[in-house]
Task: inverse folding
């Protein structure tokens, strides 16, 4: 009986913390469902950072100026860093990074579907910064206030760097727009490809979204998909105008009444096809990660063996 | 072309080309920590390359490839993206296609130990730019060498497999080690002028550093003969391996498609 | 651009790009007999590509990329070496990076079975050039398909490892199979005009051929979903995988360096 | 005693065949030293064809015109074919192709040192045809009359194709010389690199050549290294003049008295360094072959297993 009472007390304390918008910390008691939901969300976020390295790394060796090469290399490096913080945050919930990596490469955990689209020109480096990082920031800024402490603190640091990346991406596009006709065409073509997938980054519309309600109650999530998508569109349209590109949506128009932009409906069939694994690059991205992981196995084993031998000699 | 410009190209191309090889590791390393560290090394070398290419162009603008009138491409990019492989002055060690992680570590150890010893001396160059680049580079190369050294020890004393792979990788790398210390006539002249460093003067020190790493790691240094050149011509003369033209085809493809481009 | 020209580009680019991938096998095959056979297939496809590119250029000279005045580069080379990847009309199956020998066989089986069925019909084209190319190609593709079919059977019934590898390779190849039979609007129009063939009309026949190969080999055909395009756009629309721009960077590097060159 | 007599008779018959310039055939008796010498020579020749594919295959994917791509691909394919004939000729002496391949990739048998030089521009494709195939033809034409039947017959076919390749190579160079200044510079630079290695293809000078005398007595070889080298120089100098390139030898001059060209001495130190394995590409070439062979092992095993299963079912 004692234990049941304890558990009730713990749960009440947990609910109070959530209600006060305070942080849950790793040593605090938390419901299993909350823990599992967090693991899923943080891991998916970490995987997205790591898989997200691939479409951009695809252009490092072909960057058209040394300055841009340095910026891109540093950016992809930052993403590896973000992956590291997030895996660490996830580890405080009792799962190891190895375990999470295995879930990724075995297809048991997902990552942001945007990275299942290919990068086909150097303009994509800019577009990913502007639109993809822009959408990510809309999703992530509210998470800085998320209920789980380590996750919220990781997000503060990550959001700062993402904003920087977004500005860099936009700056690349503005520079290219001041260049040649071919360069302007590359930018437009890239924006045409990434606009809709960027909108889909906020997930299905609220009616179709399974996790939103519980996640919001727990303070793991703070706004609905559609709210965030609207915020992103309202933020991005003026930037597109400043840049001089056309967003590929004939229904995009300012709605004076709502004080917001109306816009068309993403192709949700495409969205679900990509989520289910049939996107242009799903297999390629996971295979890349699996190969890198498998090829690195002997190195990780060597490091483990070496560390063990050092401990032994220290004990002696 | 002037000696100072050619000398700067040698130092720049080593960094630029090797940075390219290191950047190919991006998203392919054994774990995230190594992915971060390798990208760091690649970034440091890329930074050195940019300063050195700019110095080369300033020292002798005639070495900068001609681009169409009004092209906004800066000299560092014209040099990086619009020269062909015979105009690159890097040692062949820098351009070898990547092998496994053991090859990465073996090559980085040799490359960074040699470049560190060189930069320590070059920090005293009469050329203020070279001196500044070298002084900054010393800190960077020290980190690179220590990173490589730690992993060298780890692989040597890790598992049977890691040791075997390290030994195999060393053979290929050490065949190209001596090229780092051969004195090119340009190097000889800039050294005499107090502007550059004769790499031969660093050979003994680098040898001692490597010997210590080998000793601590319990790895016997393989005896290998140096890779022959082409009628004596090697990387510093623009005589490269088959790998460089392929590397450049990739590195230069976008820049060359847009000779009037702004980036 | 005119429909006939675009249609010829589709047929040409399939052959040109896949020939490139096959030629990468040169000096890398499991044994000399296969090295010879794969080079043969690559040569046949290259020959088809040349005739089809020339036909495309003749049908609509406006599709040929502009080169400097007086350039001696013939239209077939201007089309092969001076278009960028969004201008290539090949299916994505043709451009996939090479895998192992099982991937080679699985891809060649599907590619050649589909192209053979298409060419058998195309031999009746109202366009005399297309008809002639197709008639000649039928003999070639028959050989390619038989070569792939024999090896398919061999790998399927060879060892545990060869069977496993073949099954793994099939998943990737079959994801891109259906793209071969999707009717592009250009194909639809040239088919109506009696000049080209709607590939959808060959799907059942190819399916029957493949089913027989699978049955004889005792391999169950994996059920896979087709690889999505980009907002519905696929290879025939110029929407490719990340691999094509890298392939072209290599294929075009020398030609682009010498726009006034004679070869 | 009978056996000794037989062996003497066989040896006498062998010597008579050699003396009459008739062919020794696989079923004929032959001295072990003759057999071993032939195996070494034919295998080395076969290996040269196969390793020789690499420097040219290096440019297939980068050929600057589709016509040249087809020519080059067909040429490299011919080399694989030559390797096949020669391995078959060698197999008539009682060694298997597998065995010979193993000797190659383990470094126990050699191949022509010329292939340890890199190909650095498309002009090299032409230069290899002109100079390297040209030198090979000088070496090989006399071998069409070699004493061992299968070898001689293989050489007849090979020489025919090699002449064709040589003309194609020369034709590429003449076309490039009619092109741009850059193209002419590429041709000259390529000839500068390949001239001396081509001269070294005839082997060390006669005083230093260990095998020449016995091989000539057996009719395995028909001219000395220096004779062949002179013949090659005399044949090539007028071609170079017609082409408009300078051969990189200041000592090259017509000697009216000898009715032949005088020429400088190759760098024999470089020659021996390359023979011993320290050439620019020795390790690369052998590693390439070893990798291709190792990666193909499972395919060859599958073919063997399949063939065995077919025989079993036929027997049933």
Result:
């Amino acid at each position: 009986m004692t234990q049941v009472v304890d558990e009730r007390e713990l749960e009440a304390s947990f609910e109070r913390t959530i209600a006060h918008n305070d942080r849950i910390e790793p040593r605090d008691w938390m419901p299993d469902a909350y823990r599992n939901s967090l693991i899923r969300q943080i891991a998916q976020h970490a995987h997205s950072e790591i898989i997200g390295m691939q479409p951009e790394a695809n252009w490092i060796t072909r960057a058209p100026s040394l300055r841009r090469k340095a910026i891109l290399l540093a950016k992809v490096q930052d993403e590896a860093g973000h992956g590291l913080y997030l895996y660490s945050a996830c580890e405080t919930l009792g799962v190891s990074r190895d375990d999470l990596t295995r879930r990724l490469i075995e297809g048991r955990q997902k990552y942001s579907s945007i990275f299942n689209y290919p990068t086909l020109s150097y303009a994509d480096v800019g577009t990913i910064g502007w639109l993809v990082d822009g959408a990510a920031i809309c999703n992530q800024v509210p998470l800085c206030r998320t209920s789980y402490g380590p996750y919220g603190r990781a997000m503060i640091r990550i959001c700062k760097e993402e904003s920087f990346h977004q500005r860099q991406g936009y700056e690349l596009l503005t520079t290219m727009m001041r260049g040649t006709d071919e360069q302007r065409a590359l930018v437009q073509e890239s924006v045409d490809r990434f606009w809709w997938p960027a909108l889909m980054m906020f997930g299905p519309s609220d009616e179709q979204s399974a996790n939103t309600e519980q996640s919001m109650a727990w303070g793991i999530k703070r706004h609905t998909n559609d709210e965030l998508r609207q915020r992103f569109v309202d933020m991005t349209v003026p930037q597109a105008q400043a840049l001089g590109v056309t967003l590929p949506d004939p229904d995009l128009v300012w709605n004076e009444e709502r004080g917001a932009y109306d816009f068309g409906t993403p192709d949700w069939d495409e969205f679900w096809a990509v989520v289910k694994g049939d996107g242009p690059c799903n297999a390629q991205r996971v295979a890349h990660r699996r190969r890198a992981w498998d090829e690195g196995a002997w190195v990780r084993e060597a490091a483990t063996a070496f560390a063990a031998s050092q401990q032994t000699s220290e004990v002696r | 072309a002037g000696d100072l410009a050619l000398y700067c190209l040698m130092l720049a191309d080593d960094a630029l080309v090797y940075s390219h090889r290191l950047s190919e590791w991006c998203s392919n390393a054994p774990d995230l920590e190594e992915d971060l560290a390798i990208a760091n090394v690649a970034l440091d070398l890329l930074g050195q390359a940019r300063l050195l290419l700019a110095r080369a162009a300033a020292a002798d603008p005639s070495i900068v490839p001609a681009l169409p009138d009004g092209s906004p491409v800066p000299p560092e990019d014209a040099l990086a993206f619009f020269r062909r492989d015979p105009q690159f002055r890097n040692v062949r060690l820098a351009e070898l296609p990547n092998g496994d992680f053991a090859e990465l570590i073996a090559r980085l150890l040799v490359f960074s130990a040699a470049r560190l010893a060189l930069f320590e001396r070059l920090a005293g160059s009469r050329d203020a730019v070279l001196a500044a680049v070298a002084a900054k580079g010393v800190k960077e190369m020290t980190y690179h060498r220590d990173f490589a050294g730690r992993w060298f020890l780890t692989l040597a004393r890790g598992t049977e497999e890691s040791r075997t792979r390290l030994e195999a990788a060393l053979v290929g790398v050490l065949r190209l080690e001596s090229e780092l210390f051969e004195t090119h006539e340009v190097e000889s002249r800039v050294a005499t002028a107090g502007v550059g460093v004769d790499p031969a003067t660093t050979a003994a020190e680098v040898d001692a550093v490597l010997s210590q790493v080998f000793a601590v790691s319990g790895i016997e240094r393989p005896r290998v003969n140096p890779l022959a050149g082409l009628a004596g011509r090697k990387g510093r003369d623009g005589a490269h391996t088959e790998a460089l033209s392929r590397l450049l085809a990739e590195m230069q493809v976008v820049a060359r498609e847009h000779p009037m481009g702004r980036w």
